[in-house]
Amino acid sequence: MIMLIITKSYMEKTNDSISKWAEEFMQILPCPECEGARLKKESLHYKIGDKNIADLAQMEITALGKWFNEEVDALLDSKQTIIAAEILKEIRNRIQFLIGVGIDYLTLNSPSKTLSGGEAQRVKLASFLGKGKNSDPVLFIFDEPTTGLHYQDIHYIIEILHELKRNGNTVVIVEHNKQLLSTCDHIVDLGLYGGEKGGELLFSDS
Predict the structure, then answer these.
(1) Phi, psi of 41, rounded to the nearest 5 degrees
(2) Count of beta carbons in the 10 Å neighbourhood of residue 107
(3) What is the model's pTM?
(4) Helix (H) / strand (E) containing 56
(5) What is the number of other CB atoms lying within 10 angstroms of the CB of residue 171?
């Protein structure tokens, strides 16, 4: 009876606090069939060289990019190379977008709940960039996209944000990083405090 109540509380997810309470009684274990790959065993039988799709998903994006750029071609015969040409081109582009937004240390199978807010936003940004240019302008709103980025890598995000603007989109950023703020077209500063005591316009200028 107690197990049914806990399972129901977790599965319905009508209340975050109740779901978190139910999670305290749970333990995540890898599936004995797929060993945590979350794929059917038939899918895992297909390999390029000695790697299946689960092996690739477990690699850091930097290593994955190196594998696709330097190793995969030697593992395909001439016919396979022709068939895979466009697919490989798309995969390499997508990987490059992930590297460009500064999340090259993640893996493709990283659970979304383990990502910081900044990482999750950069994943969505890379996904948008991978779809190519939109015919209609898009309004982007980012909440501290530089969170978790090394200081030396912030210029990558700055360049991508400006590329979005050059393509006719509007980019609004909630940010405290001075390096990024120094490149903005217009800055609005609200304060003086947080919560109910905040919201006062302190500064607005280009």
Answers:
(1) -60, -30
(2) 15
(3) 0.69
(4) helix 53-57
(5) 18
Alpha carbon distances (Å) from 53 to 57, 71, 82: 6, 15, 20
Contact indicator for 99, 65 with CB cutoff of 8 Å:
yes
Q: What is 153-202 written as a DSSP string?
A: GHHHHHHHHHHHHHTT-EEEEE---HHHHTT-S-EEEEESSSGGG--EEE
Report how far residue 56's alpha carbon sits from residue 118's, in angstroms, rounded to the nearest whole number.
24
Question: pLDDT digit of tens for each residue in the chain (206 aa)?
Answer: 677 877 877 777 667 777 778 878 877 788 888 888 888 888 889 999 999 999 999 999 999 999 999 999 999 999 999 999 999 999 999 999 899 888 899 999 988 878 888 888 888 888 888 776 667 888 999 998 888 777 878 888 898 888 888 888 899 999 988 999 999 999 999 888 888 888 888 889 88
Beta strand 187-191 with 200-205: parallel, antiparallel or unpaired? antiparallel
Three-state SS for 203? strand
Tell me which amino acid residue 54 is.
A
